[in-house]
Design brief:
By secondary structure, this protein is α/β, with parallel strands linked by helices. It has ten helices and nine strands. It has one domain: Vaccinia Virus protein VP39 (Rossmann fold). Helix 1 packs across helix 3, helix 1 runs antiparallel to helix 10 and helix 4 crosses helix 5. Keywords: Methyltransferase, RNA-binding, rRNA processing, S-adenosyl-L-methionine, Transferase.
């Protein structure tokens, strides 16, 4: 459960969908002069180098964020593009932030953040770039249950497991429902992969049944390499902010052209 290294996949087509929607939501929520809480259950290291050997080995970032920028999938003023430009201004043109650093761009001094990362090396790297947040080296769901409902009660949680262990697909719907009961006003966003064997399908169906008012957005794309099992990316959002569905459908239309 501690073997996953996102450096091989940072900036890929799945990251692009997830981060575009996350940035849109954070931009929307922070536009109002009310403090909020940001929680993340599987934070990763926070910052990645797209010129590093991991990224170059897979080429996933080239097909993802690099292509998106060159083909202007993110128009001027898009929250993700503005955040990425700012972060690259500080860390270099090959930097790619994970969701914690995207969050840091939008969060204000009055906001509160809790980030969980269990992997020792990833947690150490995360600590070096996210001094704005409360860091937890523990299971992400355990952190979320301990913190919820957070103070301030207004806010957003990102759940982004690696899904290395098949039982995660069974655990996630129960965890989401428990957290939704504890934090019924929170925006709860879950990312999941779409796989060739459709193992995610029962999880998504359970989520849809338990939360019929949630926003579900899925995109498909070619496998990163022959035989690669991931062929798409999904976002499930409870209490979606107004207008998020329009952004989700805009992205879906772009992916349909791939």
């Amino acid at each position: 459960m501690l073997s996953y290294q996102h450096a091989y996949h940072a900036g890929n087509l799945a990251d692009l969908q997830k981060h575009a929607l996350l940035a849109w939501m954070l931009d929307y929520l922070t536009a109002k002069p009310k403090p909020l809480s940001y929680l993340e259950t599987h934070a990763g290291r926070g910052l990645y180098d797209l010129s590093g050997p991991e990224s170059e080995k897979t080429g996933e970032a080239a097909a993802g964020i690099t292509r998106a920028l060159s083909e202007e999938w993110l128009p001027d003023g898009h929250p993700l593009r503005e955040a990425l430009d700012s972060i690259r201004g500080a860390h270099g043109p090959d930097a790619y932030p994970g969701s914690p650093l995207f969050a840091r761009y939008f969060l204000r001094p009055e906001d509160n953040a809790h980030l969980a990362e269990l992997h020792p090396a990833e947690h150490e790297a995360l600590a070096s770039v996210t001094r704005f947040a409360h860091l937890h080296q523990q299971d992400g769901f355990a952190m979320a249950h301990a913190v919820c409902p957070p103070t301030p009660r207004r806010g957003l949680m990102l759940i982004d497991p690696s899904y290395e262990v098949k039982t995660e697909y069974e655990i996630v719907p129960r965890q989401v429902s428990k957290l939704a009961r504890k934090w019924n006003v929170g925006v709860i966003a879950l990312w999941y992969p779409i796989l060739t064997d459709s193992r995610q399908a029962p999880m998504v169906e359970a989520l849809r049944k338990n939360h019929p008012d949630a926003l579900i957005s899925e995109v498909r794309f070619p496998p990163a390499r022959p035989g690669h099992g991931m062929i798409g990316s999904g976002m499930f959002v409870l209490n979606p902010p107004y207008g998020l569905e329009d952004e989700a459908r805009r992205l879906e239309a772009i992916y349909k052209r791939l």
